[in-house]
Design a protein that fits this description.
Length: 97
């Protein structure tokens, strides 16, 4: 558990790194941590990463979404928020077209 908290701290810091490989690696590490307490942090990190200018970071964010969903299933409230955010983003995409 202590190692995972350290990984999370490092991962969150590197999500803002100018290097796309560092940002993607930080997101990959963050999404691989299986602690339900960090699900909200993962959700925010993925939300920021899906609109990143780098396609590599966006791809990594897309791969992190199922991991987040599996982690969020145990937490009913987070799962509902996650589903609501997905529906809202799909609706806003439809509104833009």
């Amino acid at each position: 558990m202590v190692g995972q908290v350290g990984e999370m701290r490092i991962g969150v810091v590197h999500l803002q790194d100018p290097n796309q490989l560092i940002r993607a690696s930080a997101l990959r590490v963050l999404s691989s941590i299986r602690v339900s307490m960090i699900v909200p942090i993962m959700l925010l990190a993925i939300k920021e990463s899906v609109s990143d200018m780098s396609p590599y970071v966006r791809k990594t964010a897309a791969h992190a979404i199922p991991k987040l969903y599996r982690s969020a299933q145990s937490n009913v409230l987070i799962s509902c928020v996650f589903k609501q955010n997905i529906v809202m983003s799909e609706q806003s995409d439809c509104d833009q077209n």
